[in-house]
Request: fold
Amino acid sequence: MSDVTQLMYMELRREWNRILDEARPRVAPRCKACRECDSRRPRCMFVSSERGKSGERNYEKLQQIHLAADTIYEGGNGDEIDASCMFFGEKMSAPVFNAPIAWIKNAFPASHFKKEGVEAVDGRATDSDDYGYTKALIKGCADVGSIGWVADSKHHPLVHFFADGLQAIREQNGRGVPTIKSWEKEEMIERIQRADAAGAVAIATDIDCVGLGDMSINAKYDSLPGVVTPKSAAQLKEIFSVTKRPYILKGIMTPQGAVKACEAGASAIVISNHAGNSLDQSLATIEVLEDIKRAVGDEIKIYIDGGFRHGEDVFKAIAMGADGVLIGRPVMVAAEGAEAYGVSIYLQKVIWELKNAMRMTGCRTLKDITRDKIYISKEF
Ligand SMILES: Cc1cc2nc3c(=O)[nH]c(=O)nc-3n(C[C@H](O)[C@H](O)[C@H](O)COP(=O)(O)O)c2cc1C
Reply:
């Protein structure tokens, strides 16, 4: 950790609540900056599907998994607990990342990440300061020893989501993962090459972005670089052959999808349903984790997101076979509340909880977090 003050857990919680209070007026009306971000309708209107059931299910299914405490073992004062891991050659203090979400002023019209001297026109949030926002994400993650992810969105002459995120990653010496939408081949290749030149640790594609209404196959925007489409394993392999960097397919929800990701040459997948944005009535991400792990084993790294809020939730995913967890909306709210500091406070709290769960279950390192350390309720 670099310039982050190490706080005690109670202080972290107090500070987190203060950050939520700061964020609340800036994230209204879609988000209420709830103490527990559970996606429940009608209070939560963050995701765009009409019923919002997939997002709710992500959270609910995680609540049906419980940790098995056992503190009769020969241990130390807690300092020996080591949650660190490697991510494509980079050391991380714990297997926790932010999840990529672009266009801050589209999500939060009252966001403080606002470009001075630019007016929002066309209801399209053209005054969005995505550079300030992604810098907060990337720096906040780096400050706690994590790695930040940034996203991509449609082209707009006044907002440059992808370039802004890449700039933030470049300034952190490449410690970040840019996520590229499934554009037409030439557009994807051009963006992969830019991500490569920025020195990114790895490059991702949210292959499930084809389900997002205004990016669907029939949508043609004035300045959109073509449309986003599903791609075969062979197409993805060819597109990503322009880089030697590891690449990650985000938005995998079935064992078959995971096997195809292996065929496509991806180094990792993210099990994700886009917080429920892209398809309503899907299973929760945690429900498909074990089937996917069985299908691909150790052939590919498995990351997961959707409804993970606390270190205990991260523990559950590791016990069920994941290599790490991404957290979306709470980190976005943290950036809105206190920029990089907010992100670092939230992630420190999650990491503290993970380490406490490890201590309470007799796990010194992540390898010790095995399936017998959790119980799953019958109704799961
Ligand atoms: C408003 C919104 C916008 C999103 N935009 C993107 C995006 O541009 N690219 C992407 O890969 N994922 C995007 N996601 C999905 C997140 O990366 C992540 O999968 C999801 O938020 C994780 O669930 P959580 O918010 O419950 O933690 C978006 C999610 C939300 C809520």
In short: The chain has a mean pLDDT of 92.
